[in-house]
Fold this protein.
Amino acid sequence: MCGIVGAVAQRNVVPILLEGLQRLEYRGYDSAGLVVIQDGQLQRERSTGRVADLRLKTTGTHGTLGIAHTRWATHGVPSERNAHPHLSNNLIGVVHNGIIENYESLRTRLSAAGYVFTSDTDTEVIVHLIHSHYKNGASLLDATRTSLTELIGAYALGVIAVDNPDQLICARRGSPLLMGVGVGEHFIASDVSALLPVTNRVIYLEEGDVAEIERQSYRIFNASGAEVTRPVQVSKISNESVSLGTYRHYMQKEIHEQPQAIADTLESVCNSTSIIPGIFGAEAAASFDAVNSILILACGTSYHAGLVARYWLEEIAGIPCTVEIASEYRYRTSVPNPKALVVVLSQSGETADTQAALNHAMALGHVHTLAICNVAESALVRLAKLRFLTRAGPEIGVASTKAFTTQLVALFLLTLVLAKQRGRLTEAQERQHLNDLRHLPAATQKVLDLEPKIAKLAEQFATKQHALFLGRGMHYPIALEGALKLKEISYIHAEAYPAGELKHGPLALVDKDMPVISVAPNDVLLEKLKSNLHEVRARGGELFVFADANTHIRSEDGVHIMQMPEHAGYLSPILHTLPLQLLAYYVALQKGTDVDKPRNLAKSVTVE
Ligand code: AGP
């Protein structure tokens, strides 16, 4: 989703802005632009397409104060005229992330006041609004603050004025924004990765904060207008962790980082023989004692993690669990159970629908809330009472991989804690589960070693238009996840079904052109699954089966078996995810798609 970078320095900031935008590319965008003050004028360049195109356009551009933006179209098509920054009367420049809900009434009012709109965006109302106050003598800070009181919606903003060449104003509400602290220079960005070449000292702005930033100083005001001090934190994210290294794509790198990401996520239990609620926060034990059910809210891949957890929570911990898509829950009239533990799952912690769902749950009276998230400083982590941070490290590829498997690890830990608290776990079982968890990094590495074979298998998908994924039980959500991965990066239409549902409809689709990919763990449902696979084969469908050892499913004409190294019991969904990630990746390579930045998609969906 849109990305913002801004800088006020003693040196030319254009290379800093461009590098920052390039590092935010993973968020998804369709156009890019920047504005600097050059020779006493606002010098703006914009382009549709890649940041590389903008770089070509800005070879002669320079300035010591500037703001830049990558846009993901919401209001108005992707085009140069709709790209940010937006200007008002060549005096004010603004970049904006978020959505202004009351932009139509503001646009009507500002047009009547003589402002001429040159784009179809909601953002343009902000720049004219600030101009309307600034031209009447307000400082840039006050003009921005007054304007914010008139906006309804979400925003992260960067604002500059041509006659104020030493000052950058920024603000956030509902969209992420942080400040970077340098020596004699300051920066703003949507996330820290954009600033790592210039500083790792950052200030995470809070909801409603507005900041006035100069080269040597800055002032931050909270939502009530009071000047506040926010801590300067040294980001743990290293430049190396966001660089591609020798990998061809971030997705490939992140798939291969899973053994380490899982080991890091397990750090809190790595040396223990028992598991304690405290890993979810100081108040976790009391909350877990008080709850009688679980409500999981999430979107996309994170939702699939929730679906797997439902099987674990009900079977191992014996606690009722429902899992809802956040964007549905937030608008549905549901019956709240204040004794439910509301668990929000999110890689980014900034997904607008998941945030809104948590707010909705809290408004309904839910007090027991837990965020399982990969970004420590995110809105969701701040909002929930309890938290567990997955330690996947920055995930850059739009297709979520290591965030998913580490979420599953976190959810399994939650299951064990709740099972133990409910007296459903003997000491021996607890030790065994912990041992199984500790074995996971090694087990996932063995699965990743199948990469060359999966790459070969993927060649057979190069000409396919559709694919069907099958799974049963706790592997059904893995089939859903496999289908999501394939469709989002290879653009092959993919559906997932619980294998038992085949004969209730989807079997009609099966013919020689429809590859059927099945997850076949060696569990209690194996024989049922085998019957389902026979149903496919009998209709001429070509089968691609990821089978555990001793499943006795044999390769034959039209049946391709990929043997998994070992069966991991309850943790099997984690292992079975990996080959499906690799399959999607290699099929996308066959198709020649933009793997890390698939069309129309954004990494963090910070708007509704
Ligand atoms: C996954 O590959 C997706 N790109 C997407 O479904 C993602 O999982 C979803 O948007 C939720 O994001 P979050 O985990 O950051 O909340």
Observations:
- The first strand starts at residue 3 and ends at 8.
- The radius of gyration is 25 Å.
- The chain has a mean pLDDT of 93.
